[in-house]
Amino acid sequence: MLFSGRWRAQAAAVLFWVWIAPASAVTLSVEIAGIDGDLERNVRASLGILQEDAARMSESRLRRLHLQAQAEIEQALRPFGFYAPRIETELAPRDGGWLARYRIDPGVPVRLSEVAVALAGDGENDPDLRAIVTGFPLQVGDVADHRRYEEGKTRLRRRALSTGYLDAAFDPAELRVDPAAGTAVVRLTLNTGPRYTFGPVRLEQDILNPAFLARFVPFAPGDFYNVRALLDLQYALDDTEYFSRVEVVPHPEQAVDGAVPVDVALDPSPRHKYTFGIGYGTDTGPRGTLGWDNRRVNSLGHRWRSQLKLAQVDASAQFSYLIPIDDPATDSLDLNGGLRETNVEDRTSRITSVGIARNDRDPPWRRNLRLNLEHERFELADGGEEDQVLSLLPGATWTYLRADDPVYPRDGLRWNLDLLGSVSADTSPFGQALMDTRWIHPAGSRGRWILRQQTGATLASQLSDLPLSKRFFAGGDNSVRGYAFQELGSRNAQGEIQGGRYLVTASAEFEQMLWRQWGAAVFVDTGNAFEDSALDLKTAAGLGLRWRSPVGLLKLDVAQPIDDPQADWRLHLSLGSEL
Known about the structure:
Number of helices: 8
CATH topology of the largest domain: Porin
Helix content: 10-25%
Distance between the termini: 82 Å
CATH architecture of the largest domain: Beta Barrel
Structural class: alpha+beta
């Protein structure tokens, strides 16, 4: 025989329990009344009866969990200052299952009769720490909220540790509650101990000049230890692209006379970086880019950047030789040059340029001071007369940028002011200013307002004194939608668009994400480029489809000029951040 009598009996018992288990499963509903918000959420998270799968729970297990619910509710209410709740519990059959009811009156909260928060040690008079003590989140008369107590403790100790008090500890740290009296006291003293300083910084690498690399360190031996300074060093070295790995490691355990040594482990990035990209826009048509960067031309951190861009309306080849100066993390000298050809309808421009620029960055601000020598050949119509201009162009640009997200900002501002001058033997000198503002503001949980404007003005005796590339035009994906790229501007006697000395554009857009990464928008754009100060604004309105792709927002817009209702709707496609 394969099985004895005893084994047959055990197998039969197992089969019996497997067969009856589904019939014994519990269906359970839980109702909680009398509290809401954080109180209810914490009670639900603490109830054992809600933490187990009712379908796998026996009736006896259900009753045991119900019996312990009152103690769990009392414990869940205490962090909020409620120590004397009145709780009614009920467990009753309902519709073949069970209903557990908990009616909770949290009662009168315990309030603080004394709050004593103090500092001791070297940081006793530290103004930053004293400000946190003064602003401690609990005061006399407040509810004895354990969460706010822990929040205040954490904030105080974290600030002490981050500013060099590495031995900081609480003694005492008490929140004492007297439920019978309905009062509580806080007694909290942070003994900061001594304040540490920075010791030597050991930069472990062999690709850059040590003296050059040491300029990235934003502190000196003897400065007070500060975590923010360590993070600034980490970010600065990461941003250089010299290194593929940056690890900044302080060693408090190796401190000598309170001076903490810092090790910085650095792995080099590949010297050469190659980039390739393709895309499409209704302004440019199909486009492609090729790039080659030399991240480390030499041990002094010089760089070489070059890029080739090809598109139907715009083609260019540009290079830059960048030399770190002053603060090497933010400041550079840029020796640059390039070739650029632009073809828009019946207008053609070819520019050869060389220049020098100084770039400074102090977030959220950026500044660019430059001097370019440009030779431009341009014509307004195929086969027409071609003009040539050789110009010396001093310029300056200031940019302010803040955004809560670099790819899809919901709250941000970009403001840009560009000033340009020209001295040329071929034309009269001129000066030009262009201001560009883009503002994004959240609307509800998934919507946003997008406002933008451009205002430009040129000080010149006549439009013919301006090379084609320095004239203002309007129309296109990022200007007045509903019109083609650079379709708007003053016209000459032959009816050709010749641009203008002045520019005004504005746009108001409301965008709402509807489903996952998809959304829609409605917008109104207006503006034009003018030869004189008389405004002749062209206005268009339209609708758009939005997709939040991994590389930026894809926008598909259709717009129609309001000034010309008979005009066809125009399609606009673009990809990238609004800022």
